[in-house]
Structures are given as structure tokens and as C-alpha cells.
Amino acid sequence: SCNDKLDLTTDGRISRGEIFQDRYKIMGWLNSCYNYCPGVSLTRAGYTDETHHSDAGTSNGQNYYNFYQGATSSSSWYGPDNPWESLFQGIRKCNIFITGMQVNTLPSNVTQKDREQWMAEAYTMRALYYWQLVKRYGGVPLILKVQQLSDPYEELYPKRATEEAVYQFILDEMNDIIDNRLLPDTYGAADLGRPSLYAAAALKSRAAMYAGSIASWGTVQIDGLVGIPADKKEHFWQESLNASNRLLHGSPFALYEKYPDDRSKNYRNIFLDENNCEVIFSEIYDGKSGKGHSWDMWQNPSGY
Fold this sequence. Notes:
single chain, 304 residues, 47% helix, globular
């Protein structure tokens, strides 16, 4: 115990402050903000991490049926380690990144354009995670800061926002990105899988459509934690239309019509012709970053 050779100066981990002193560490943290997207894996209700549940192959079909019939709650879907709760981990990742980019002096090889674009990517992913939550649970807590264990109780356990407030938050975030053109229109091959300006418009369009539908045909309950007042329906429908028009007129995206005389072939090849003109925002499963899926395996005949 008196030998200083036993005093460890590092355990190989990087402090949060060190991340924002290096361009590539910053990019690495930003890339990790994408890890919580619901994907195509059937093992965890569309979540891509399959390492935790060995029984998924046998029980998955019934779990899916129960979930979509409303017989499975947020807490009983594979217990506390369920995919929807993991979205809050993604939100925290984004919050750490956004705050770090705001408060730290960034290295000289990170330009102002880099800063704006990378933060816009994190804002988009955070909004996407909130949309995944609000469309399943209604109003959820809007946590927009990096929480610390020393924070007051009411900040560590914030109350649920109304469903309307969560949808409006998503629209406000995307409007800021779209109006200020904080994301590029398109990406080169090396950056496919990042949200473009039109991906932000697509998220806005979809979220506003959900909100408009809820306001038109839903019922406000639990003091607004579920439901949106009917007098807000025109607002949300208009927001959805505005975003859709941005995609329809002037964007590089269009319906896939490579085979004008064979619509069934067009439909089939949408899923085979990667990064075609209909693909606005997608996850990249190339294996290089350890990102994979089990979709093909689950389509094999039972008994393999």
C-alpha cells in the first residue's frame, strides 16, 4: 500500500471535458447519439440491441401481439430494460452533447458551421426520440438539460408535460433548423444516415400530422396529459402541410418510379435499391461500426 506504483493515474476513460477538446472525440459522441433509434430488429419491439434477452425468439410474437393490443404496459415490456425507456438514455446523450457544444471552447479545427450542423443533428435526434415517446404515452417529461444527482428533487423527477406541449416542442425544434437551414440538403456517401434539412421537415410533417389527428378525433384527458384541444387542429394540420410542401416542391426526393410500366416492380425495388430517391432518412446497417440487424434471420422457417 506504500508503493506508488500501485497508484493508478488513469483507467482509460475519457472525461466529459476532454471530449470537447478534440474534433474526433466530439464526432464520436455525436455518433453515439444515434444509437437509440428504434430499428428493424424484432427482438425488442424494433430496438436494435439484442444482447439482453435470450427468450426473445420464442416469446416475441406474443409480446408483439400483446403490446399492440394494449395488453402490455410500458413497465411490463421486458421489465425496466425496455426500448421505450431507453429513448431517455438517447435524450440524455443529446443533452450532454448540446450543452458541451455550448459551454466549452472548441478546438480550432471545429468551425462555426460544424458546430451549428452537429448541434442541429443532436436537436433532430432528441426530437425524434421525443416523438417516439409522445406517440405511445402522450405527454412525457421534457428534459432539456443534463441532470445531475445533486439537482433538486423536482428537477430530477420533472412532471409530465402535456401531449400538446411535447408535440409543439418537436415542431419548434424542427422549425428552427428548417428556417435557419442548419442542416445540409443532402450528404455524400460517407455521411449517409445523418438527418438532412428534409429529414427535419419529414419529422415535422409526421409529428404535426399525428398531433392534428389527435386534436381532430381524440379526447383531452388527465388535464391534457393525453389529448390535444380541438381548437389546435388547424394549427397542426397547417404545420404538417407546410413541411410536406417543402418536401414535395424543390427537394431532391420523389416517388420511386424507376420502372414506369411496372408499379409492382417499383414497390419491390424500393426495399432493394438502397438510398433511392424515396429514402429521406434511414439507419445504415453496414457492419463497419458494429451496426447490424437480425431481420433476415427472423424470416427463416421455424426450426432452423
